[in-house]
DNA sequence: CTCTCTTTTGACGTAAACGTCAACTCTCTT
DNA sequence: AAGAGAGTTGACGTTTACGTCAAAAGAGAG
């Protein structure tokens, strides 16, 4: 019977801050907002591997413009199996909505890249034309 | 000699608000921040087709988590040719950086979708297993 | 034991991005 | 003329997401 140990690695607040380039204040704020739930060693916070994974997801979410409140809801999607199987089907629905949003963002992102490329092409033509004019002077 | 007319369509603040689901305050705020520059008919603002295009880009940028300040800088990339060819090569550099950021975001977004799909798969397995257990009871 | 380093808990401050009145002004309709 | 509708300019308020001290506390080095 194998114990559920082996992944008992923890990180100090400083370590995580270095790794993810955030301040302690940020991590404490996320804890206050219940996005993270580090355990304690006396006063000190000990961030588990799970906390670290959640932090990654939080920061990723932020990069896509999700609010912390939205991220909080979504975090659960990525951490099923922690305890009981809570309203699993409802969770799946949320996941689908989230997935749809991500896909939609992807499409928009592709459009943005396409637009940008098009503009760059125009700009390059203008540059070329100007060089040509100079050469003709 | 064809005049530069023909695109002289304008929109009222209300029209744009409806179309893009924002409030008047938002558009005035964007003007104050110099992201938009509607012309005037007496007191009233008249938003040109160009303003409308810029607004689209602003909202798109926001959806990807760019700040208004960042968006302001980027807006110029999409509106070359308005007047003189201002430091075109510098603009192209900015465009490349922006492009790189967009590509990077797309990669992350793909990763996010992949992760989510994986979690959904796990959840579905759990559901299936639970059904199985019920059936075995 | 003293000093330094890391961390902790308040508590107040702040920048960004609007929201929310209040008080007018136009324009148009009835 | 009078009222409704859309829009305008202040000006202050609010939420989000932290920043920035201050004061104290434990852990380890010398």
In DSSP terms (H or I, runs of 4 or more residues), the helix count of chain A works out at: 5
How many β-strands of chain A, per DSSP?
A: 3
Biggest sheet of chain A, open or closed, and with what strands and sense?
Answer: 3 strands, antiparallel
Oligomer: homodimer
Helix proportion range of chain A: 55-70%
Percent strand of chain A? 5-15%
Q: Within the largest sheet of chain A, what's the order of strands?
A: 1-3-2
Radius of gyration of chain A: 23 Å
**Poorly predicted ranges of chain A (pLDDT <50, ≥5 residues)?**
none
- The topology string of helices and strands of chain A comes to EHHEEHHH
User: Terminal Cα separation of chain A, in Å?
Assistant: 86 Å
- How would you state the average pLDDT of chain A, rounded? 87
Q: What is the approximate shape of chain A?
A: flat
Structural class of chain A: mainly alpha
Q: Name the largest protein-protein interface in this structure.
A: A-B, 40 and 40 residues
